[in-house]
């Protein structure tokens, strides 16, 4: 039986067409697919919900797309231990875990578990609950040679074996195929409230400092800053009715804002429709990015922000934002951009540890067949 079918015109990755598509329904089928891909020397890119296929660089070569749309569902939900094991193709939207939650917000509707882990994406509530790397406690992967590997386990403090989970998180599919992920869960909060305040960019630094000083343990502190005009600050608190009411009242007083239970349309969504950037800076330097003349949105509570740069001035804007971030001790990468922009800007910027990253790639994928060229340094 054929393990893959001919690709269609829609089967492309960052504009590069594939020759074949495979959609395994289990880890065992995925291993068989990749063993045959080794035999035929096929270059492979993994596709989940297809929401971030334009992130990173186009693959240097693409023969086979491995689609995870049939690798879906809950493998195990140990409610008493606050643990869930999910197949990689499971959509993050609409997970029903009986009063518990996987607190991994997805900024992109339709994103899958495997895609979120592979690109290390997270949303507003990373401030309280952490990122995918923090929530992940175990993983099953198929290596590029078709061998299956397991890491971690179904207990939070499991330390056996190599931590492949952290290695594969954010690797952009360059080290192998993720088929299952085990996460720790949290109880779903009974009540939530959002305190909003709109103010000039010059006042945001003082408002953020006031939130930190109030020690109300917010789940998220988000900002929405258009290219021009005032900035909206939104602070999310969750928990019991009494606790949320008291903390929201304190925030209303210190911010001069207003509490609501309705989330704005921009909440947890990327701001771009042109050139998308990810910026990381220390908390004290978040206000430095708000006067750059571009749309900025994201987590002012963790210093992880996203920018929308105009295509026509992308090289200048990218250089300016990167310089600001690097001077502050942070980073700036271009996640997505039209091909003409990709060809003239440095998508990744300076990356510490690139030599080690290349050695890891050589060890896991000596033939450089998995997502070749998609990641930093041409990995």
UniProtKB/TrEMBL annotation:
Key word Signal present: no
Domain FAD-binding PCMH-type: 13-188
Protein name, UniProt field: Glycolate oxidase
InterPro entries listed in its UniProt record: FAD-bd_PCMH, FAD-bd_PCMH-like_sf, FAD-bd_PCMH_sub2, FAD-linked_Oxase-like_C, Oxid_FAD_bind_N
Protein origin, superkingdom: Bacteria
Coiled-coil residue windows: none
Molecular function in Gene Ontology: catalytic activity; FAD binding
Originating gene: glcE_2
Gene3D superfamilies reported for this sequence: 3.30.465.10
Entry-linked PROSITE patterns: FAD_PCMH
